[in-house]
Each structure stands twice: as C-alpha cells, then as structure tokens.
C-alpha cells in the first residue's frame, strides 16, 4: 500500500468512469443472464459487500428477492434454479468469497462474477464474468473498484427490473465522472476545512441513510485502511439508537451524508451536545461545513461520488503520516 499511488488512483477516477460509461454504451455486460431469475444472492467482503448491500436493498424495493451476504457466512440460501449468485471481488482472489463460490459451483444457480481481474480464480466456475474496468489500483486500496462495482450493480438493476437500458446507466456514470472531477478540481476550496473539522482525538464517524449506507461504510474503511485512524459507520435512523450516546462523552466528529427523513432527528442531538458535523452533498442545519459538488442533487450520482470526500481526507492524512 502506498499513499502517493492511492492519491493518483483517486485522481484517475473521472477518466476511469468515462471509460466505463463508454463500455456500457457499447454493450450490456449482463446480456447473458437467464430470464427466469427469481432470487439474487450477492456474496462479498469489505467494499464489495458494502456495495452489494445497497444493490440488494434497491432490488427489494423494486420487488425482486435479493440479499447481500457476508461471503464468510457458514450458511445462506441454497443454490437452486432461478437463483442468480453474484460473487464480487476486486482482486478475484478473496479467500472467503472463493470459498463461497465453491459452495455454489456446479449447482443449478447461475453465477455472474464481478471482478477487476477477469482471469482470476473467481471467474473459473462462473457462467459469466463481468469486468469492473477500473484499471490497476496501484495504491493497493479498493477505491475505483468500489465506485465501479456500484455502477455495474446499477446496470444489473436496470437489466433485472427493466427500468431502463444500460445506456441510461452510462449517462449516470458520465454525470458521476463530472461530479468526481468537480470535487477533485475544487479540493483546495473544501479539503482544508474538512481536514480541520474532522481531525479530532476520537476518530471520525460516517453517517448515511440506508439507501447510501455503503458511502458511510466505505468512508470509514478508507480512514482505517490508509491513515489507520479510528472510524466507524452508522445508518442515519439507527444513529439515534446506537451512536447518539457517543456525543455525550467523546469529541464526536462526523461526516454526514444527508438524505434520510431522520436527518433532523440526529442533528437535534448534534446541536444540543456541540458535536461537529461536515455535511456532504446537501445543506444541513447545524453542520459546521457543507461540501457541495456538481450534480449532487441526483441521489444516484451522489451514491457513486460522495465517498471521494473521505478518500481525499484519508489520502492527505495518510501522506502526512498521521
């Protein structure tokens, strides 16, 4: 792992997204899926599972039976005809995911593997391999692959729900590329403030609605993985039941992704106890600072873009050795 190369990986996001959008315009990566899918089972660890959790929630909201499991779980739904198993691994070599894949190999389930390494072991038993097309992450941290995983899972959603052709997802990915470029180009305007406000003695807490929980989870992971800072994630509504207690005893500092009907409920406690919140993508009463970017009023663009804030904070702290 290398902090300078990690920053370079982040700076390459717009170009990588543009290439992904072009690929989606050219062909449907999920065209080979069978038509009789009754259940979708996502398998993954870390960033892959974060993205899968949001994808499964979206599919359930569309009326499709979908679940995101830890690949390390000892038991899950039995593989059967009509089940689409989607193992996700950026490297294609995650031990837990490969073990889960082995349990489903040779069954009647259809397996579509998502990976940034199409020739890796995860693809060997799969009926379909979908490349993430994120390019090599030389910094050793899953950042572009996380973003591309989300984008391709949106393409899978479009395929399964019939909500729109992948060209619609391609247009979304292009807007996300523009949003990402905007945050990168204007980082001198917002990053110093974010660094100052989030730099506390008790770590950083990332808060997001269930529909964007992957953003909070990935943000916290980036702060742990690079600069090795304490960080955790919480769903906005659940925050008032599980994390609110920390605001009474800690110098509580949060990266907050608005969009939940329970934003104000959480912010009531934040204001009462003088905690520090940096809002991303929308104004939030009581926030110490708000970071806006191009197209942030589009919830799907935000889903694909907003983790870049924490990633750049992490890159800066990591490079400084703190």
Automatic annotation (TrEMBL):
Its EC number is 2.6.1.16. InterPro entries: SIS_dom, SIS_dom_sf. SUPFAM superfamilies: SIS domain. It catalyses: D-fructose 6-phosphate + L-glutamine = D-glucosamine 6-phosphate + L-glutamate. GO terms for biological process: fructose 6-phosphate metabolic process; protein N-linked glycosylation; UDP-N-acetylglucosamine metabolic process. GO terms for molecular function: carbohydrate derivative binding; glutamine-fructose-6-phosphate transaminase (isomerizing) activity. Pfam families: SIS. It comes from the Bacteria. Residues 30-166 form the SIS domain. This is Glutamine--fructose-6-phosphate aminotransferase [isomerizing]. It comes from Nonomuraea cavernae.
């Amino acid at each position: 792992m290398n902090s300078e190369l990690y920053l370079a990986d982040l700076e390459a996001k717009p170009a990588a997204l543009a290439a992904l959008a072009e690929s989606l315009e050219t062909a449907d990566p999920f065209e080979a899926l069978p038509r009789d899918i009754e259940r979708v089972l996502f398998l993954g660890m870390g960033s892959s599972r974060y993205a899968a959790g949001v994808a499964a929630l979206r599919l359930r909201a569309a009326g499709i039976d979908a679940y995101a499991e830890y690949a390390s779980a000892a038991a899950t739904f039995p593989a059967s005809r009509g089940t689409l198993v989607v193992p996700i691994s950026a490297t294609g070599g995650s031990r837990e995911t490969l073990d889960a894949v082995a349990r489903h190999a040779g069954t009647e389930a259809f397996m579509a593997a998502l990976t940034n390494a199409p020739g890796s072991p995860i693809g060997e038993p799969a009926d379909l391999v979908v490349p993430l097309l994120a390019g090599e992450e030389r910094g050793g941290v899953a950042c572009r692959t996380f973003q591309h995983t989300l984008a391709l899972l949106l393409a899978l959603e479009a395929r399964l729900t019939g909500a729109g052709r992948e060209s619609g997802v391609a247009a979304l990915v292009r807007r996300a590329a523009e949003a990402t470029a905007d945050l990168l180009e204007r980082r001198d305007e917002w990053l110093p403030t974010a660094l100052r406000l989030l730099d506390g003695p008790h770590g950083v807490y990332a808060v997001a609605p269930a529909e964007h929980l992957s953003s909070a989870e990935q943000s916290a992971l980036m702060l742990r993985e690079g600069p090795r800072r304490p960080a955790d994630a919480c769903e906005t509504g659940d925050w008032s039941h599980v994390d609110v207690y920390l605001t009474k005893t800690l110098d509580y500092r949060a990266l907050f992704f608005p969009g939940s009907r329970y934003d104000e409920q959480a912010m009531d406690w934040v204001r009462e106890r003088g905690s520090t919140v940096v809002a991303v993508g929308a104004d939030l009463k009581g926030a110490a600072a708000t970071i806006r970017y191009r197209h942030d009023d589009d919830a799907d663009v935000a889903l694909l873009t907003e983790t870049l804030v924490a990633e750049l904070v992490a890159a800066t702290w990591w490079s400084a050795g703190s």
